[in-house]
Amino acid sequence: MRPNHPWQKTMIAFLLLVLASGCASHSPRPETPPSKTGETPEVIIRLIRDPVRTRPQHQMVLLPNAEGRTGRLIVRTSGGTQTMDRPYLATEITSPDAAPSPPAEMSPETVQRIFGAALSALPDSAVHILLYFQGTSSVLIPESTEMIPKIISVIEQRRSSDIGIAGHADRTGSESVNLKLSRERAESVRRLLTDAGIPSEHLDVHFFGDKLPLIPTPNRVSEPRNRRVEVIIR
User: Fold this and answer.
1) Residue where a domain terminates, one of 95, 120, 145
2) Of 101, 120, 139, which marks where a domain is finished?
3) What is the pLDDT of residue 58?
């Protein structure tokens, strides 16, 4: 990572906000694979010697996501390593051979003063809403049926034209049965949204059978939290 511009600090803050929100890593090579349990994987950032800038300075701040959570950020140079695992911890690197400074808390006001322009340019983070289904059917449970007006309201407020619908099943049935059921669930939610006036071309439907459970279980085990559709409003 070798920013050669005056706005390098702003870009670093932008990247770490993305990392804290659980998006794709911008590090050259993550040293841990993505977690299969939903836990945010740690991210390692390396500073490479830049022959043009003899004294680069990078300031990195770990920002929380919308739920107030962060992952873990490891900042490593040839001079040492620092780990940040709490919101608003910050570290600086003054040269490729110098160790990152000990993490220190940066107030939200200071973050806004230094990085406000970059943060205000970020798009709104996606809204994720889970809908759950009855047994081995594509019928929503009553509590999830009541969520449909909220989904419509969020789509309209955000003027979203990019809505993902992802269908899932638990492992009660066979693989082929679960795949078919996850598709039926996704299609049922798609119909609810189009019937409410959401253009079908704004909807992106996928289905995954039992391959992406929220709660891992053995075969033939019923798990209500895996009988779901996730609606992602971007």
Assistant:
1) 120
2) 120
3) 84
What CATH number does the domain containing 220 carry?
Answer: 3.30.1330.60
Residue 32: both structure tokens together: 């841990």
**pLDDT tens track for 164-174:** 999 999 999 99
Which residues make beta-bridge pairs with 45?
Answer: 75
The pLDDT > 90 percentage for the chain reads 57
**Do 90 and 14 share a structural domain?**
yes
pLDDT at 67 (0 to 100): 64
Q: 77 and 23 in one domain?
A: yes
Query: What does the pLDDT look like over 72-109, one tens digit per residue?
Result: 888 888 899 999 999 999 999 888 788 999 999 999 99
- Its pTM stands at 0.58
Domain that holds residue 34: 8-120
